[in-house]
Amino acid sequence: MNTKKTAKTITIVAAAYISLVVLFESSLGFFQPEPDGTIIITTVDKQGQSHDRVVSRFESGGEFFIAANHWPRAWFQRVLQNPKLIALIDGESASYQAVLLEGEKHDQLALKYDPGLAFRFLTGFPPRYFIQLERLSSEP
What we know:
Layout: H1 3-31, E1 38-44, E2 50-56, E3 58-60, E4 63-68, H2 74-81, E5 84-89, E6 92-100, H3 103-112, H4 117-122, E7 129-137
Antiparallel strand pairs: 1-2, 1-5, 3-4, 4-7, 5-6, 6-7
């Protein structure tokens, strides 16, 4: 196979893969599933506007966690900038402090809640970050 043909084949395969990831991620964002395994978080941007987002729910040791599992993650950037958020969990809304996990605790959750190779492939192998939700009060 000559160099031009190889480069063309690689470009076509890469474009097809990127299109698959964009289509999969877009469909997730569009359909926003809300089964029992989700939490609705409300974050605030720099302009003071609030944004709701459905995120996957993880529990361990009686604590709640959410994870940035995808490339589209504006909500994650807002949480890093302003870690106070409101979360709707099991029909109850409350204020929480978001704490970015690192080290051993992050690694334990990553192993416990490994999404699998197929999911990582469909999402384009984004880095994964876990956030612990520490309840501040019973009022939002």
